[in-house]
Amino acid sequence: LAVDPVIIQAEMILAFQTIVSRKTNPIYSPTISTTVVKTAEGPANVIPDTVRLAGSVRNLNAEVRQETAEWIKKVANGVCDLHGATCKVRYTFGYDTVINDDIPYGMSLKAAQNILNEKAIIVMKDPIPASEDFGSYRKIAPSTYFLYGGANEEKQTNITPHHPKYKADEESFYYGAMMFLSIVEETLMKK
Prior knowledge:
Blueprint: H1 5-22, E1 31-39, E2 51-58, H2 62-82, H3 102-115, H4 173-190
Antiparallel strand pairs: 1-2
């Protein structure tokens, strides 16, 4: 008989998804991603002593963010207890949710309208649960976060940034620089 951490981690990863579907308000449900699973190196026919999991949680609500952390701890400990195992949960809160403030948002939209043709501007109606350090800037000053694209099928730059095959179209950097320049000019003209 053995306490098998590989089986336990598999059950734990699945159990984390019940936090999303059964323990949080569906309007603010988090995304829980287990992206790292590591065991000790050894022969393929030996059950390892330990397993390490890591991942990320994204959501759009500070209260749900806190509740999700507590539920992850409860689920991890509960699954381990069920199998006669123990675990250490180290949960680190990442960046705050990115929320656009009205005035800088309006300035960035105006800059885009001055630089790009109308078809190139997409105003996103729904929030995205991005995990960005930019979320912390709002504590210091009103801010906005915009995305500018460089997708070009011919150059094979149409893959999203967090994909291992991502490649930037450096010609698109011009538009990003022009956006920032336009926002700076607008800010200076208001002073």
